[in-house]
Design brief:
215 residues, mainly alpha, 9 helices, transmembrane helix
């Protein structure tokens, strides 16, 4: 059976795995974005607090993803839980770092002007600072998503959802007729999903970032 025949015979399962993979990454990115921006908002005004936030989240990336999942299995079991925790932790660094950089890069005169017309601190943050910091934050989200697309495949080790199961099945059956087809199908599926997500972020950027800021 060649690769195209394999895709034709397994397309339903591959589509299901692809949907689960995309869903897991999307949901974890939502959680990571909320946490990352919140951490950035709480720490960007202080040099040491911002440095601590970036250092703490960067330390997660020094832990091999397979090792982190293995450490989580005795604590939370197999399946979705270790997948969500691992992907969320790995997705934090680019978002936290870019949120801090973006918020610190807002022109102080604009913040002072907003303060001068009577805006409260939360209003200045929501209506002035965060919108101006959105372009670097979106860049951080894009970087995190690309990382998580690959890391999510490792979650199959803990019976997690997604295309990693196809890859692991192929690796486990190396030498069989469809082993290479399984690995190739899972890998190409992840690449396609990563490209689709990135295209969606480009569209979001065009819709949410004013042309003057993009320039």
């Amino acid at each position: 059976m060649n690769f195209w025949e394999y895709l034709s015979s397994r397309h339903q399962q591959l589509l299901t795995d692809a949907f689960q993979h995309a869903s897991a990454v999307f949901q974890c990115m939502v959680i990571a974005t909320v946490l990352g921006v919140l951490i950035g908002v709480l720490t960007y005004r202080s040099g040491w607090a911002g440095g601590l936030a970036v250092t703490s989240t960067s330390m997660v990336l020094t832990i091999p993803s397979l090792a982190l999942i293995g450490l989580l299995i005795p604590l939370v079991g197999l399946g979705v839980a270790p997948t969500v925790i691992t992907l969320t932790l790995y997705g934090l660094l680019p978002i936290v770092r870019n949120a801090i950089v973006g918020l610190r890069g807002v022109d102080p005169s604009l913040v002072d002007a907003a303060k001068g017309i009577g805006m409260s601190r939360p209003a200045r943050l929501l209506r002035v600072e965060l919108p101006l910091a959105w372009p670097p934050i979106l860049t951080g989200i894009r970087v995190s998503t690309q990382m998580l697309m690959g890391i999510a495949a490792i979650a199959a080790y803990a019976s997690g959802p997604g295309l990693g199961n196809e890859i692991f099945r192929g690796i486990a059956s190396l030498g069989s007729a469809n082993a290479i087809n399984q690995v190739l199908a899972g890998t190409l599926g992840i690449v396609v999903l990563a490209l689709l997500f990135d295209a969606a972020y480009v569209l979001i950027g065009r819709l949410t970032i004013p042309r003057g800021i993009r320039a």
